[in-house]
Amino acid sequence: MTRATCGPTTTARQALGPRLVEYRIRSAVLCRETRLRILFPIGYTEGSARFPVLYLLHGGGDDYRAWTDKGDAAAATADLPFLVVMPDGGRGGFYSDWVLAGATGTPRWESYHVGELLPWVDMTFRTDARREGRALAGLSMGGFGAMSYAARHPDLFVAAASFSGAVDTSLYTHIYARAARRDGGPRGAIWGDRRTDPMRWRAHNPVDLAPNLCGMALVLRTGTGMPGLLTPGARPDPVEAMVYHKSLRLHRRLLRLGIEHEWHSAAGGHDWPYWARDLRATLPVLSRVFADPPPRSDVLTYTSAEDSYHVHGWSVRMSRSGRTTLVITGVTGFSLTGEGFATVDTAPSYEPGRGYRVDGTSLVADRAGRLTVPVRLGVGRHTVRLTIEKDVP
Predict the structure, then answer these.
(1) Region of residue 293 (phi > 0: left; psi between -120 and 50: alpha; otherwise: beta)
(2) CA 213 to chain centre
């Protein structure tokens, strides 16, 4: 997934209400036109204040219109001081860059949402373009998207909420094959064959990537699949029962890791009355986080199963695929756990042209203030800890 892309082009804009506007944009990443809706806060057109943004993601079988047409999102957010951006994510796109083609080519939803749409929103509207000014929420497939994006890009989002989310790719895996077929893709189109490419599945799995969620405001809400009060007379819902177990797995992993989060489960099905209620119940949490963001830790930990990744201004390129963990201790050093050989580019935190000692090796910061550090991890999973100090002339 590449973050840096040329921005999309706006081709149409239609006001659908006093706060709701629908945009049609031409995406260079998707190579086609796509649409989204935005709910603006009251008073947005007045003054020069900047506003946080909630990215609200739809579920499988729906599109960008779902939250306003079915989920009462406009009324729920009427008095809240932030933008609500509702992009399209395909009927079964699962907020990922696919490995195989579907009916309209090979979808690149993550590259579009994170690398193209997010910068476009910040450049086009008066937003608080910091991590502290962005949150994610979504239902079902969108609940997965919210937690997966938050875990894969923890430097971009301060909060994430999942409602009936399919947040564990290791459980009930037929869900993802069925989703791919919705968009004309074969089994394994999203992340490949799970038997031969398990690391790609783990690279997107919120349960595997749960350590990256530390320091965010997190909310997990799900029904159990048993009939609930909002749908009297309903039968037990097997789909909600499946996502309940997925959400429970993420909840338990967060508990083991000591990561604070809200967990809410009750009788209820995979249906809009419950998701609309979940959104209303979660919005006060997001409002508090935007008003008083949690402080960022001095030590940043990031786990990935990608061959290369970029986070917190750092870049890591691995010579061997596998799970790696980068622990950043500010300008004083870092540790990397994994196997093989890696090249680590630090954040631009050093004096350009100045020499630095990295555990006995002399390196010079480039014009941007970055150090490029080769790291030999060897065979088997090892941890290498490196200290960065100014070189004595």
Answers:
(1) beta
(2) 10
- Residue 182 is inside which H or E element, if any? helix 174-182
Residues 165-223: tens digit of each pLDDT: 999 999 999 999 999 999 999 999 999 999 888 989 999 999 999 999 999 999 999 99
Rounded CA Rg of the chain:
21
Contact between 327 and 335 under an 8 Å Cβ cutoff? The reply is yes
The β-bridge partners of 358 are 361, 388
CA distance 370 to 387: 15
- For residue 102, list its beta bridge partners: 105
How far apart, in whole angstroms, are the C-alpha atoms of residue 94 and residue 180? 8
Where would I find the beta strands (DSSP E) of 8-52? 9-15, 20-27, 32-39
Position 321 scores a pLDDT of: 65
CA pair distance 361, 62, nearest whole angstrom: 54
pLDDT tens-digit readout, 349-364? 999 999 999 988 999 9
| CA atoms within a 13 Å half-sphere pointing along the CA-CB vector of 260 | 5
Q: Cα angle vertex 337, ends 99, 134, to 5°?
A: 60
pTM for this predicted structure: 0.95
Q: How much helix, strand and coil, in percent to the nearest 5, is found in the chain?
A: 25, 30, 45
Q: Which two tokens stand for residue 51?
A: 């506003």
**Which residues does 334 contact at the CB level (< 8 Å), separation at least 6?**
314, 326, 327, 328, 344, 346, 385, 386, 388
